[in-house]
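F.,

This is the one I mentioned.
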């Protein structure tokens, strides 16, 4: 039987899952230091575990945690400042500001993650560092998850994050959403971050939880915030929001009740969220009409073709290949070329698809990418080439990290005998 304490601890865990990144973003704004804010966040939740079971969960737990974290940080600075006048002054300044800001701070909390994203995407930081830092600090992805998203090694990503934090601290980069031309300069990095967050929610890179709807919905909300912030409609922001909505519309059909993956061709299209698809259609239309669209809008247009097809067989694969051709001119990359080869295999048959895929597999990125081997395996399977399919599925399995993908690939190997 669950006790009151057990129930409270479960609520605290839920609050940590849903609110910790918002609390951290606010603490970074208030304290001006990433590491100090991270320590303060942990101290605040430790305090909650001690106090809330006896006192009850406060009406506004997020504000309570922000306040507790800030005063924990002030106490920490005071302890460290016994022989350091600079730290002493910093602690007293924070304490004085805390009293003044207590009345108004709740109004700013909701926008703090957006401010933090733009801070992390400052042009003074390298692009890869911008994205890695934002994924780590704003969204709470682990270094390993970020490395997986980038197809990089975890120590490399960790070094980028440490250097980026130091650059923000040493250069005194302001914690704010920029204005005018500076805002648009940072926008592409911000959109890339949002999309990578969505991708982690769309299919978690590791762990037992296949889909993380919290991250996907977070990314959609952040894109909506950015779009509303811009003085003029930005086509690529519209395109990114549309792309995420189109993928999110299929969330109810992407796994079985047991959490196993369901391929697009086998999903129950009657359960797709038509309201989200309609909203995405409007965004794509506006973006395309602007004649200033880019890769996100083209990817959304591809997703829209899938969304309106009554079945996989009835999909307009010729249109999809044409859109991929255009996308490759804008964003030449091994992943786009891989997706185009898959579309070619659906339009012209798996043998032609294998011909398109063969030269791509020489690229080091795709050689280590499990989905490239899975795509090749599927083409061999459709041709009845069981041994070649088995070998390619095994190569994909050896590279896959997500448990649900591993189970899917093992099932394919079982089916091949």
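My design for it:
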């Amino acid at each position: 039987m669950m006790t009151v304490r057990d129930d409270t601890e479960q609520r605290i865990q839920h609050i940590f899952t849903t609110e910790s990144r918002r609390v951290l973003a606010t603490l970074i704004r208030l304290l001006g230091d990433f590491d100090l804010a991270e320590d303060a966040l942990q101290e605040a939740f430790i305090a909650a575990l001690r106090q809330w079971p006896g006192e009850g969960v406060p009406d506004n737990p997020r504000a309570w945690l922000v306040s507790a974290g800030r005063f924990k940080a002030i106490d920490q600075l005071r302890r460290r400042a016994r022989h350091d006048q600079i730290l002493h002054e910093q602690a007293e300044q924070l304490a004085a500001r805390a009293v003044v800001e207590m009345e108004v701070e709740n109004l700013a909390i909701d926008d703090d993650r957006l401010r933090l994203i733009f801070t992390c995407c400052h042009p003074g930081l390298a692009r890869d560092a911008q994205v890695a830092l934002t994924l780590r600090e704003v969204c709470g992805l682990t270094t390993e998850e970020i490395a997986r998203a980038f197809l990089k090694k975890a120590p490399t990503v960790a070094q980028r994050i440490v250097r980026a934090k130091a650059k923000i601290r040493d250069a005194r980069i302001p914690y704010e959403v920029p204005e005018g031309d500076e805002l648009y300069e940072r926008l592409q990095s911000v959109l890339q971050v949002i999309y990578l967050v969505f991708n982690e929610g769309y299919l978690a890179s590791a762990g037992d939880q296949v889909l993380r709807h919290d991250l996907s919905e977070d990314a959609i909300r952040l894109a909506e915030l950015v779009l509303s912030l811009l003085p003029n409609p930005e086509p690529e922001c519209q395109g990114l929001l549309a792309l995420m909505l189109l993928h999110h519309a299929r969330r109810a059909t992407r796994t079985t009740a047991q959490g196993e993956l369901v391929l697009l061709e086998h999903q129950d299209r009657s359960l797709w969220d038509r309201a989200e698809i309609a909203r995405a259609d409007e965004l794509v239309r506006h973006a395309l009409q602007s004649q200033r669209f880019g890769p996100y809008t083209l990817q959304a247009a591809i997703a829209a073709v899938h969304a309106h097809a009554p079945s996989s067989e009835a999909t307009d694969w010729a249109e999809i290949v044409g859109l991929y051709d255009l996308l490759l001119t804008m964003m030449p990359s091994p992943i786009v070329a891989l997706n185009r080869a898959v579309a070619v295999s659906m339009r012209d048959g798996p043998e032609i698809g294998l011909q398109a895929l063969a030269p791509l597999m020489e690229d080091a990125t795709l050689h280590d990418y499990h989905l490239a081997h899975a795509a090749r395996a599927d083409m061999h399977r459709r041709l009845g080439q069981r041994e070649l399919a088995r070998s390619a599925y095994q190569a994909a399995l050896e590279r896959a990290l997500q448990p649900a993908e591993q189970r899917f690939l093992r099932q394919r190997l079982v089916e091949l005998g």
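The chain has a mean pLDDT of 88.

Talk soon.
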